Amino acid sequence: MKKHFxxxxxxxxxxxxxxxxxxxxGVEDGLSNRRVYAIQKGPKGYMWFLTHDGIxxxxxxxxxHYKLMDGEDEINSMMNLNWLxxxxxxxxxxxxxxxxxxxxxxxxxxxxxxxxxxxxETEGLHTPVSYGFIDDNNIIWLCNQRNIYLYNSxxxxxxxIKNEINESITDIEQIDETHYFIGTxxxxxxxxxxxxxxxxxxxxxxxxxxxxxxxxxxHKGSRKIFIxxxxxxxxxxxxxxxxxxxxxxxxxxxxxNRICTFGEKDILIATDGAGVYKMDVDTYRSEPYIxxxxxxxxxxxxxxxxxxxxxNEQRIWMANYPIGITVRNNRYSDYKWIKxxxxxxxxxxxxxxxxxxxxxxxxxxYATNNGISLYEHRTQQWHSFLSVYDKEQKNQSHxxxxxxxxxxGIIWVGGYSSGIYQIDxxxxxxxxxxxxxxxxATIRPDKYIRSITKDRDGYIxxxxxxxxxxxxxxxxxxxxxxxxxxxxxxxxxxEKYMWIGTANGLYLLExxxxxxxxxxxxxxxxYIYSLYQAPNGLLYIGTNNxxxxxxxxxxxxxxxxxxDNCALISNNIYxxxxxxxxxxxxxTEYGLSGFYLKEKRFHNWTKEQGLHxxxxxxxxxxxxxxxxxxxxxxxxxxxxxxxxxxxxxYSSRMIFSDLRIFYQTVYPKxxxxxxxxxxxxxxxxxxxxxxxxxxxxxxxxxxxxPSLILYSWKLEGFYDGWSRPGEENVIRFTNLNPGHYTLRxxxxxxxxxxxxxxxxxxxxxxxxxxxLSIWALLLYALILVAIASIALRIIVLRKQRKISDDxxxxxxxxxxxxxxxxxxxxxPLEELSDREKLSKEGTDNLSTAxxxxxxLLRLTTNLINFERADTYSNNFYVSEYExxxxxxxxxNVFRSYASVKHIDLTYxxxxxxxxxWLDKDKMxxxxxxxxxxxxxxxxxxxxxxxxLGQDPYHGPGQAHGLCFSVKRGVMPPPSLKNxxxxxxxxxxxxxDMSVGELTDWARQGVLMLNTSLTVREGMAGSHRGKGWEIxxxxxxxxxxxxxxxTAFILWGNNAKSKMxxxxxxxxxxxxxxxxxxxxxxxxxxxxxxxxxVNEFLKSNGIEPIDWSIH
Length: 1110
Prior knowledge:
Layout: H1 2-12, E1 18-19, E2 22-25, E3 36-41, E4 47-51, E5 54-58, E6 63-66, E7 68-70, E8 73-75, E9 83-86, E10 92-95, E11 100-105, E12 110-116, H2 119-122, E13 131-134, E14 139-143, E15 147-152, E16 158-162, E17 169-174, E18 179-184, E19 188-194, E20 197-201, H3 204-207, E21 213-219, E22 224-229, E23 234-238, E24 243-246, E25 256-262, E26 266-271, E27 276-280, E28 286-290, E29 305-310, E30 315-320, E31 324-329, E32 335-338, E33 353-358, E34 364-368, E35 371-376, E36 381-385, E37 400-407, E38 410-415, E39 420-424, E40 429-433, E41 451-454, E42 460-463, E43 468-472, E44 477-481, E45 487-492, E46 497-502, E47 505-510, E48 516-519, E49 528-533, E50 539-543, E51 548-552, E52 557-561, E53 575-578, E54 584-587, E55 592-596, E56 601-605, E57 616-623, E58 629-633, E59 636-640, E60 653-661, E61 664-665, E62 684-687, E63 694-701, E64 709-716, E65 730-733, E66 739-749, E67 756-766, H4 774-835, H5 840-872, E68 878-882, H6 883-900, E69 915-919, H7 920-935, E70 945-949, H8 974-987, H9 999-1003, E71 1006-1010, ...
Parallel strand pairs: 62-67, 70-71, 70-72, 72-73
Antiparallel strand pairs: 1-32, 2-31, 3-4, 4-5, 5-6, 7-8, 9-10, 10-11, 11-12, 13-14, 14-15, 15-16, 17-18, 18-19, 19-20, 21-22, 22-23, 23-24, 25-26, 26-27, 27-28, 29-30, 30-31, 32-59, 33-34, 34-35, 35-36, 37-38, 38-39, 39-40, 41-42, 42-43, 43-44, 45-46, 46-47, 47-48, 49-50, 50-51, 51-52, 53-54, ...
Helix pairs in contact: 4-5, 6-7, 6-10
């Protein structure tokens, strides 16, 4: 009998009942298990769910799952996960029947085992704890039939007292600081806990109740204890009257699971199988409030409610066993969801609703993909026409696109490919209309009739794929308007004009003459979905992928709204309706948008907010006489009440979490952690220099519209621009320089990116490294003073040496000058001595003269030899070298230079191997001077710029002979990709990130030189100091000697160390950080060296470099 009764109820259901807005949260959304035992809300606003697999934290969008651990053992199952409490201090507690107590530790974001019953107390007991409870005194009660364990959560002390009740405790409700009502498996007791002694107080009205207690709830306002029982409904004890009685209601034989307050005068009662009831605490009047309705999609989906929680924003959270979490949101308007029910003729014929119309009698017509549905509001009956089930009609196509009441009770319906049908409402008859019936035999029948409209003069306008027709029903005349086709919507502007929307744009048609003119739209796509003529003369135009246009015919201008300049949820505007006031409702494929004219702002309602059917159809909707709006969708039709207001304000709270330093999460007061408090409570974050690579996660608690939130941030002191708003919620920093910064984070509305929902900030201080501390700087200053003193001493000594050298050189030059005349004097004297015969006195005088001349010559020779001795008395530092290799290296240094000058530089020897000992510095000076002199007067090279690297890439196959370059087919390393990124930012050049060969630059005169020309595989810098620097330094020196202006590009400290080699003022030097990922953000990005080099070349009359790669 019950089955038949249920079936009867099912059939008479009209499927027009008012729907609530429900949200269903299950394992597919991240819930760890569908079996949810308890619900709590934490102090930060997170929702916490105790499930069969542990504890889940929920912020409206994401779940975080917490495992409960006792040492190495994971705690789960119904014997360990039983009660979830939030105490007076906002701490979260989990208590299990095995006697374990866990507390949430926000410091480490985990649940910590703080107490468990000793093994001696649990041995032999299948259920060591029958009930766990935490009172307002921060005392945790662990109860069994023998004892009660009182654990003080503040002092960590435990007291064991005897269970004077000698019954299994099932619930406890605290009345004041010392008094409690205690429910057991056989009744209710009134007790006082004082000085760790539990004393029972006689209460005749309660002591006589023999009930199994499931739930006790104290309503402070009325001073009444509501007693939820097992299969005996609900009792109440009035502390004012000292009376207890059974409430006679629909819950008389129902088990009560939970009771909570709901407003000032009501309570909500969660039951085991009967849903949720609402009861007035004064009158005890109760009624089903939330009950499962399995005949509708948008309804409560279960009646076994383990726990219920009402938050301060009108949301009701229910642990809906065994389904998961169901949330009812009372902030949103109710609406009617009109749907098809399979096998039920008293429902909509099909869920694909293409058009909706209300006739003169207030009845509703729906054009669907399976015929026409009529709902008569007086009889609450459904009727269908032209469907596949209608055997009387032979129509092959059952899809209809438009509706119009052409005269009272006569409805025209436009078909997808079948023309126009006429339905007589009273006779329930259907006939087919063709132009030939009104003498229009030459007028081509139409298809895809998307719009049929009746104007104020009684004319019927029909628009389809082929033409626009004006039909005079009174005189049975039909007229085709040539030139207009693919009609999508028709609206009357006034007594003279009609608006015609088409797939090709908008037309204004004059009724009297049939002439029309094209209205040029300021958009690329001219496909029109819908039109709405406002009473103030404005025309609203819904377009395909171009948003909403508002046309003012008087001023002939447009307002254009789209996703990029407003909060529109979509650029496809399917239907436009007035809300009967001053505002506009728009349907899209993602939900509804409300346009509020005074504010010029949009607000949306989506599936995420409880709108269960959100893909609406084009030109499918109507405003009813009672002010309600109906929209047709791909899943039925939805009727909204006239007083409906789309949600405008959403509660949201931004949270900082998961601070990671070098990719590892850090917690307050851990070793090396910069945190003292939780990162969300930290106002100033102080980091060591070694902690300057870190990240911070940002999230928002939002249970109404989670996807509304986008994030944007900026780091003041580093970069003052805000980041582009997006869903990315992890903020990362790499190699942040020492200094004081302020991180500002904004929660931005995705509906209107100009709207800042919330802003938070945190100060970040990166300390100076130890080598830049005050003491280090003082030490550096002392060292610099010492170096300056030594340098000054050296300069003084060199100056003195120079003076000495000048004196010696003066004496030597004088000696040279004296020696020449002495030689000239000596020669004739010697000839005179040999050829002439002189007197003895003359011979003596001549001998004296020669002797003195020779003495003077010896003196001058000694002076000259003194300079040579000073020059060549320096020490030699010799080593063994293979001469052939040494000479080859020296010659090769100049070979490319000579080639550019068109000089054939060759080296030949008559030996193969020859080891020699030599002073390399002096020999280098000799040989390089010789070769340099040989090349000194050769033509200038074509080098325009020098790009200096450190050493070749050390990966397999990466070395190419040009710094930063790799051969084709080898993936560019990160440094080269950063170079390409900077060129794109600087010059707007796009690069193929899979090609890294830079020979195009080399051909244009860019010398790409590494300071070390070889490297060991996998070991960067492994050949540094092996001798290559001698060669490359000399190349830089030779380039520096040129008179042609040259750009030197030095990236990184290694390259910058070569700056002393570049002394020619004609050259330009450009320095920045190395493009390595570890340092690119420290000054490489934004250096704009590539444009600056070209500007330098052009300023010197040199052709600039094309930095693109071909």
